């Protein structure tokens, strides 16, 4: 795919156009009406229902577990980005100190929330099957 770029375009404008064109092509492959989708095979939905645990007594804990998993993933990503910026020398010493303190406080708060709901940090690590665990050990 060749795109002609205007020198006055902002950086990555040509890449944005390519992504937009790819998304348009992908959406054009979707069926226009729901009835065009193949009906599910018999018995297919029962397996999924058996795998899902929909116990009303644990819904709150499961929802908290999901939210904490997402927050922990974001915390780890921010920590990696912060370490990268420190290694690059982009931050002043005061900024490094403030960033480190903030990340430590966030980690402590995550541990408190896990304790409150009877979870461990290991409980937050989702198994993604062939991709492995969501969070690094």
From TrEMBL:
<dbReference type="GO" id="GO:0031411">
    <property type="term" value="C:gas vesicle"/>
</dbReference>
<comment type="similarity">
    <text>Belongs to the gas vesicle GvpK family.</text>
</comment>
<dbReference type="InterPro" id="IPR007805">
    <property type="entry name" value="GvpK"/>
</dbReference>
<feature type="region of interest" description="Disordered">
    <location>
        <begin position="32"/>
        <end position="54"/>
    </location>
</feature>
<keyword id="KW-0304">Gas vesicle</keyword>
<protein>
    <submittedName>
        <fullName>Gas vesicle protein</fullName>
    </submittedName>
</protein>
<dbReference type="Pfam" id="PF05121">
    <property type="entry name" value="GvpK"/>
</dbReference>
<dbReference type="GO" id="GO:0031412">
    <property type="term" value="P:gas vesicle organization"/>
</dbReference>
């Amino acid at each position: 795919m060749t795109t002609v770029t205007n020198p006055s375009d902002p950086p990555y404008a040509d890449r944005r156009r390519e992504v937009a064109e790819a998304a348009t092509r992908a959406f054009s492959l979707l069926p226009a009406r729901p009835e065009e989708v193949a009906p599910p095979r018999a018995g297919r939905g029962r397996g999924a229902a058996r795998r899902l645990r929909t116990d009303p007594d644990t819904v709150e804990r499961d929802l908290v577990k999901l939210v904490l998993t997402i927050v922990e993933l974001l915390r780890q990503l921010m920590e990696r980005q912060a370490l990268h910026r420190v290694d690059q020398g982009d931050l002043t010493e005061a900024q490094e100190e403030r960033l480190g303190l903030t990340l430590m406080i966030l980690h402590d708060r995550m541990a408190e929330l896990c304790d409150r709901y009877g979870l461990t940090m290991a409980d937050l690590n989702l198994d993604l099957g062939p991709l492995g665990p969501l969070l690094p050990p």
